[in-house]
Amino acid sequence: MTQAPSAPRPGASVHRDGGTSGPRSPRPGSDDSLRRRRRWAGILLAAPMTAYVVAFFVAPLVLLAVYSVSEFDLLTFEVRPGFSLDNYREMFGGTYVGAVVRSLTMTVAMTLACVVLGFPVALTIARATGRRKALLLLAVIVPYWISFVVRTYAWVELLSPTGAISELAAALGLVPDGTQLGYSTFAIGIGMVAGYLPLMVLPMFMALDRIDPALEEAAADMGLSRRRTFWKITVKLAMPGSIAGVLLVGIPAMGEYTIPAILGGSKTLMIGNVEADQFLSTGNYPFGAAIATTLMVVMLAVLFASRRRLDRLGDIT
Amino acid sequence: MKRRFSPASIVTAVVLAFLYLPIGMVVVNAFNADENLIGWGGFTLDWITGAFGDERVRQDFWTSCVIALLSTAVAVTLSLAAVMAVSRLPKRAGAVLQTLTYARLMIPEVVIAAGILVVIDRLGLTTGTWSVVAGHIVFCSAYATLVLQSRFATLTGTYDEAAADLGAPPYRVFLRVLWPMMMPAVVIASLLSFTFSFDDVVSTVFLAGPETETLPVLILSLSRHGTSPEINAIAVAFMFVSLVLMCLVGLASFWPSKQARRATSEEEAS
After folding, report:
1. What is the pTM of this model?
2. Are B81 and A120 within 8 A, CB to CB?
3. What CA–CA distances, in Å, run from A203 to A188, A211, B250?
């Protein structure tokens, strides 16, 4: 979605600095009042968005953080103000430690799988030419355009005991006939890779596509082996795209709700589902808030660590 | 390097099969007469007509449309104003806006939606369509801001200031100068934000309450009991809508260049 920058017309730049010396300047000293007017216009224009973000984003997050250290009465369902770290202790030591571990390992494993599968795809598209290239690129983008719920739901069928994947695995002797592959950690993993892979391929492709083929030829001419050319030139120059892909894929994966809700069944939960249950069925808001606050802090840390990279992501999303 | 089947192209073929196989199965089975979906039982349109005739499906479809329209209208208006404000404010204000935009996209939706739910609970309000819209605006406006500011960055500080210097009042600067140039980006931002709202599950699950249900949430709750031809039919119909919307986004992104060309030719003519 990059747009060609429209070049400013030569005449326009003359007036940029307020035009104090020009014949159209209405009265002396208008430069200052103009600037003040612009400032006020800016404040008025920014006010609605600021108010909205404060009311529906900042305030909710602050309240969650406050709730996370509050106490919860299991009998009366009351939230009492106070300060205790019990909710955090329960998260890392209690029944839900499995979900925490699953979320972390799934995110890492899934992101790695997307890198390993996505790079060859991006490379193939970048090296294709003409109509073939456009078609391949479209083929990767179109699944991303299809509703996320539908794409995830689609796997339920394939992984069911009579589904194509289960039958293929049974025919290969990997699992007994009629095995339910769905509603498992494996199913969540498949759903996540399929769901997020396009987001990995696109930035990788954009980086690979910018590499000048002459560089690779030059490296080969200088006596670098094919394998070393691949690692030292292609992989290295595609790194910004790969990192962007890792961010685009890994960040939503950590707080994933939809995929485990559809493909995980009731037993295999990820941390996002445990959190949602606290708010939607159990009613233990402070414990849910502790999970939410932890997720929030992790993401904010990633955000501040990668802010400069994110600035360049604007034209991908 | 000119081999026809390099390892990379084999991986590509496998990956594409992996991406399209499940969707293909859903589409095929939406027209499969075999009720248990074990084999191919012949072609039928019963499931599709059944889905369109179902009262709950129709109700949910309209709810989804209303929520997506309202979210988009508010989100794009807020974003357009905010994007225009940036050049008029100190640099640091722009940086804060930028950080808040990314933060809204990076903090998981389960966190933001839960926070809004707690606020609503604290204030003693009831959830419903309005709270879903309120939740959707949070992320829709972040996407809209990203789209609009990439377009606005190329315009601001030249055309609008020039027009103002020539004596045009602010509303005319906006209507005659900025709006025509922003139109393509506004269209893309609106389509994107409609699609994201239309397809959203997480915020809707948290904030809808018992009375409100959207189509993707219906698919989610039905799919908990396994698959059925009925769900396949609903899924295919829903998928078709989101696919059409995104194709429009794709087409709209070719629009700016044309618009810009026409603008310059008009300028030359006058």
Report:
1. 0.84
2. no
3. 24, 13, 17
